[in-house]
Every structure is written in C-alpha cells, then in structure tokens.
Design a protein that fits this description.
The structure is a homodimer of 242-residue chains. Chain A has 242 residues and is an alpha+beta fold. Chain A folds into two domains: 83 residues, Glutaredoxin, CATH 3.40.30; 121 residues, Glutathione S-transferase Yfyf (Class Pi), Chain A, domain 2, CATH 1.20.1050. Chain A has a four-stranded mixed beta sheet, with helices on one face. The interface between A and B is large, with 44 and 44 residues.
Chain lengths: 242, 242
C-alpha cells in the first residue's frame, strides 16, 4: 500500500517529522501536494480532501496521512500509527507510551519555536507582530530553550539501555524528530545554538547519529528534502536570535 | 491498583481532563498534591518525584499519572493509556487513533486559550503582558474560537454512529474533554460564548449529556472538583472577553 502524505508543499513544517519517519522506514509514499496538478495531485487535491463533506473523520489541519481508506491527522498521532507498523517504536505498551510522551513534548517545544515569530496570530504576518515576537523570543532563548534541551539531555543520560537513543536500545521515531529539532534550531537560532550546544553533548551526538543513517543521509541530499526557509516553523530572523 | 495523579493542587488546568476520565471510570485514584503533607503527600511528594534522579522516564511537567511503577505524562498520552483500560476508547485501532487525534486537537485549542492571557511567557504574570494578551485574545475570540468550535460541531454532525458522541456510539474520553472545554470557555469568555453558542447546538448538547452522567454529576458537586479560578488555564478577564 502506498501512503499519501498531505502537507503544505513549500515548507518542512510539521510534515517533515512524518517525512523523516517514512524515509527511515523505506515506506512507499507520495507527498501529494508537492506533485503536479496535471496528475490529479498538488494543492488542489489536498484542499479537495480537506473540504470534502464525505470525510467522516476530517483533519483540523495538515499534515495528514491517507493509509488506504483511513485518514490520520495530528503529527504525533501519525507517528504513533507509523511507529508500530514500521519498527520505529518499542513493541511493549509502556515503551510505546514513553516514546509518544517524548514526541508530545517535542510538539510543545516546536509550537514555542513557532510562537517566537508568531506570538499573536498565525494568520498575521511576522511584520505585524514584531515587538511581541522580540519579547517572546527573548524569553524562549533565555529560558525555555535551555529548559527543553536540558530535559531531553537528561532523558538520554538516564536511558537504562544507554545514551545512544532517547528510548530503548534502538532508533525510534522520536529520535528522528529530535534530529529535526536540532537541525531546525541551528537554522533559526545559530548564535544561541553556538552558545548552548556544548552543554548538550548527548543531543548533538544523537543528531549526528541520525544524520548518518543510510536512508536519512540519502534523503537529506535528495530533492525530497525541502530546504529550511522563512515560510516554515523554523525561521531565521537575526533580531530574534538574541 | 490505586492510581496516583500528580498535578498542581489549586487549579483545574490540564489535570482536570485526567480527573474527569478517572471519575467517569470510577477508578481508584488519589490526587496526590491535594493531600496532606503529613501523610507523605502534598506538593512535596510531587516535587520529590519530579526531581528524583532515579526516575528513568521523567515527566517534563505535570500532570503525570503513576500506575504501579509506570509514570506516564502528557495529558493526551495519559488519556490514551486510561482510555483503553477503562472502556473510554474504541476497541479498534482506527477508532482509538481517531479519538486521540481529536484529543490532540483539543490540546491545541486549550493552549490557544492559555495563550490569550499568557502570549509572551508562562513565567511572567498576566499584568506583565496585558497589551499582547489583548491582541491575542482579539484574534482568538474573533477567529480561532469559532474555527475550533465549528470543527468539532462538524465532527459530531458527521459521526456515522449519530450525533450524540464525538466518536462512535458511546462516550469516550474526548467527550469528557469537550465538556470541560465548553465549561471552561463559558467561564473565561461568557460574552463570546453567549454570542456563539447557538451556532453549535450539537456541542452544547454534548456538554449537557456529559454533565448529566451519574458519576460526573456527583463529581461536579463534590469537593474534588476545584472551582474555576484565575490561576488556571481558563481565566476570566473581562477585558479579554471582547
């Protein structure tokens, strides 16, 4: 079965966490909104599905994944689904809940990253909320960012199976997501990351370990990987990287 | 087995979504931080557990639930755990993912409610971010609130099993959470809810249906239900209820 991933075609955004899992799994998938309209795909196909009154389980927003007739939304929920199907999550229930818990904490962190440039409303431009963004980014870089990084460093340090992965002794989807967080933070806040990184050696090693995976390495070099840009969640505004 | 719930003792907050599930299930639980210090509980017990270096799966923040030796955090994750154990979630995987997806969308909505009074930082007082709060609340009440309510109204209307519950033909944990959202929105934004409610008759009926459940009714009248107050997530500031 070929999965259909639906997400905004110009950005990594939340869709990237799904792409990384699909790529690491070597799963057969099509990134629908990035494909040509003439083939019945593209944004038109995504909007058609989102607005269809025939969908009994509608998503609130992208990303969503179509697996046969099933439509699954919410990034962490999609990863919960993919994780157990593709060996990207522990086999036991307690392990699966732990990985999911970490993923939800990453989701919280990601939203705080987003809100550094959009503290008032996602519907307004960054330029319409710059003074507020400056205050929020100040708080984020000074206090929240080290708090989150410190937490995940602790999780690695305390993993009873060793410091290589966040949960258990093998890669899970949350390791892929943490790689993406580190990569995104480096793009958005290069000065702060330069200042902070040496405090979190296990996280940086995890980032490197994921980047070196055969399939991830190939993916990152491919055209399927959209470059970071200032339309996504991770944005580089010099004035916010205090 | 007696569950131990850990959450800030003075507010409903995120803990309330767990309390409602435990109450509806008739589960045996103790609300640790609300119990007396002299019995080894209270805030001291909660902080001790949060700071213990012996915990290999530490929570980032409350609420968290102790079930035997297992510690589970993140509200939606705790509900995922409780749902399958207490008949508060569908039996099939697709149904469980759908309920969880709705719960995660409620979590997103709840955070937007929180950010109406704390758009800059949770660590600052409301008084320190009032102009920003006013702008954010304006956006929320004008645009985001009706968008979220409209979404959930549609979910009820499209439920193939009928309009009584959000998923399937029986109550699940997400119905309890939606009750809490409506109750909280009425406390925080009474003017806006008065203006909006007639557009969402299915949601209001769902709220009333949950409130009338035998165990929920008893719980709401009990001292275990902390009243809404301006220390929680749902806060009533007249100036934000535009």
């Amino acid at each position: 079965m070929r999965y259909e991933l639906y997400y905004w075609p110009e950005i990594q955004g939340r869709g990237e966490f799904i792409r990384l899992a699909l790529e690491e799994a070597g799963a057969d998938y099509v990134d629908v909104a990035r494909r040509a309209e003439r083939n019945g795909m593209g944004m038109t196909a995504m909007m058609r599905l989102m607005e269809s009154q025939a969908v009994s389980c509608p998503p609130f927003a992208p990303p969503f994944l179509k697996a046969g007739e099933q439509i699954i939304a919410q990034t962490a929920n999609i990863l919960l689904f993919l994780g157990s199907r593709h060996g990207l999550a522990p086999d036991d229930e307690a392990g699966r809940l732990w990985v999911h818990q970490l993923q939800l904490t990453i989701a919280d962190m990601l939203l705080e990253v987003h809100d550094t440039h959009h503290p008032i409303a996602a519907s307004l431009y960054y330029d319409e909320q710059k003074p507020e963004a400056l205050r929020r980014a100040e708080e984020f870089t000074a206090s929240r960012l080290p708090k989150f990084l410190g937490y995940f460093e602790t999780v690695l340090a305390r993993n009873p199976s060793g410091e290589s992965w966040l949960a258990g002794d093998t890669l899970t989807y949350v390791d892929l997501s943490m790689f993406q967080m580190i990569a995104g933070l480096r793009f958005a806040f290069p000065r702060n990351m330069k200042r902070l990184e040496s405090d979190y050696p296990l996280l940086i090693a995890l980032h490197d370990r994921v980047a070196a995976r055969t399939r991830i390495k190939a993916y990152l070099k491919s055209k399927r990987r959209i470059p970071f840009n200032n339309e996504g969640i991770f944005r580089h505004y010099k004035e916010l990287d205090l």
